[in-house]
Amino acid sequence: MREKIEEKLRAAFGESVISVSxxxxxxxxxxxxxxxxxxxxxxxEDPELWFDFLSDVCGADMLDFEDASARKAYLAIEHDFRPAxxxxxxxxxxxxxxxxxxxxxxxxIKVKVDGENPVCPxxxxxxxxxxxxxxxxxxxxxxxxxxxxxxxxxxMPEEYEYYPLRxxxxxxxxxxxxxxxxx
Amino acid sequence: xxxxxxxxDNVAGIVRALEDRDTSITLEDxxxxxxxxxxxxxxxxxxxxxxxxVKLDGETVVDCVPELGYLHRGYEKIAEASxxxxxxxxxxxxxxISPVANNVAYALAVEKVAGVEAxxxxxxxxxxxxxxxxxxxxxxxxxxxAMDVGAMTVFLWAFREREKLYDVFDLxxxxxFTTSYTRIGGVAQDMTDETKQAITxxxxxxxxxxxxxxxxxxxxxxxxxxVVGVGAIDAETAVSLSFSGANLRAxxxxxxxxxxxxxxxxxxxxxxxxxxxxxxxxxxxMVRMREMLESVKIIxxxxxxxxxxxxxxxxxxxxxxxxxxxxxxxxxxxHDFVIVNDGVHPDVGExxxxxxxxxxxxxxxxxxxxxxxxxxLKIRSPSFxxxxxxxxxxxGQMISxxxxxxxxxxxxxxxxxx
Lengths: 183, 418
Prior knowledge:
The complex is a heterodimer.
Chain A: H1 2-13, E1 17-23, E2 26-31, H2 36-45, E3 53-61, H3 68-73, E4 92-100, E5 105-113, E6 119-121, H4 130-141, E7 144-146
Parallel strand pairs in A: 2-5, 6-7
Antiparallel strand pairs in A: 1-2, 3-4, 4-5
Chain B: H1 2-18, E1 34-39, E2 51-57, E3 60-67, H2 75-81, H3 88-92, H4 99-114, H5 120-148, H6 152-173, E4 182-183, E5 186-187, H7 193-218, H8 221-227, H9 235-240, H10 246-249, H11 257-260, H12 281-305, H13 323-328, H14 330-341, E6 349-356, E7 361-368, E8 374-380, H15 382-388, H16 390-394, H17 401-409, H18 413-416
Antiparallel strand pairs in B: 1-2, 2-3, 4-5, 6-7, 7-8
Helix pairs in contact in B: 4-5, 5-6, 5-12, 5-17, 6-7, 7-12, 12-17
């Protein structure tokens, strides 16, 4: 399975495919951000791959993923909100999980997104279901999806200024960030 | 003087608050008379706290914008700060109509990334629990949908059956509602013979009550007029909008994760994947009705085939020891302490495990950094994706059909809002 996907993707996209790996039987392809829309269109429309069902899109914040001591600090319930000062290159990941209903297989595609200017092309033109998934990712991580028809917050209030699932956001929230209604 | 200016400020504030920008419209063309109706979040037919902004042309729905987030509790953030074990009770509160199914899905996801496998008896118990949860969930869906279109009796009948199911869950898990039944590597407690008899009694009696509901609704002219041909969606659109579960199967797509990628012991049990052609509210109702009988079939087989044996895997570093041994043995006490405080340490990597939950594809995507806490835990909740298709389903329907359509796709907001 992995070999076939790797071969197909490399033939079609060459340098844009960074790696295709397998962990516990699940295939993950990492591609360059710029080509994600084309890659999605390819895996959806290729008659052999046919990944027609987008089951999920989600983000992940990899800030200090390698640094065990810094990781511990994020577990504290209450820590000061200090936005990550240094713009970390390739801080975020956007992960696409898709299914082929015909072949009964799964595929995961990953892209890296910069910390300073988190922008990623939207795949709504290929998978209409990505609409709400991308909105949720934008809401939680502040990743802007270019070309999204309706990029509003999914869960948090419209005027909220933070992105809760970022690692530098404290677990207990930021006091006063959500104004209470006047009595 | 000071007092009256204060009053003026107050009045201006109230007026501002009343001018909700989502509901105010400008009538530029006098012939284009659209009305925007704000439905929810307290509306009884929205099954929780779903808010819909419905744009109406007379009685026809022109457009609809669902607003979510009224029940957002930030479970994905909480998961990052709790150990894998600690998060199990939170999974009860996702789809609170079928908590056991969520417990099973979460346990499977952690077990995959941690490399643990539950013993056969635990796997059969999990299948039984998940299928009982499915019956409970489908009963709720059908009862609530029937009530929304006016059939109060069915709602009461469905709740009578669910009450019996809660008694079964009480015996099986020790609690009625928020079960927290699974553990990493097994289940919390073994199924006793008394539980087994209670389940057998339930599944023996259930088909009769099931056929009562079928008789009540399937030839009922009022019910049929409200659901047949209402809110139809074709297979292609349903797939493109990531519809899943019973809703997708009602559009004729034979996709069920129990057969698509069999987990637990589903490959050893025989059952049919129910599909219907129509894709309308009636088809979704029929799929749920027929699936309940399939679940009964699965439970019966699982009860017969269930072997004797342990209900927790024998992996002291990753699976909690038995409570009575913790109190008496030093080594078990140490393991218990380490697992509870520091957590299970899975391999570094990522894994996405999906199960066929009661509402559709319920998946947990875990990125593990090798510590006792998940680095990232994404909940792929079926209700969230199913709700995404709501505007497509509602367009062109009548305002009175809105409640029937919401009922037929069976959203649970605890799950959709996380």
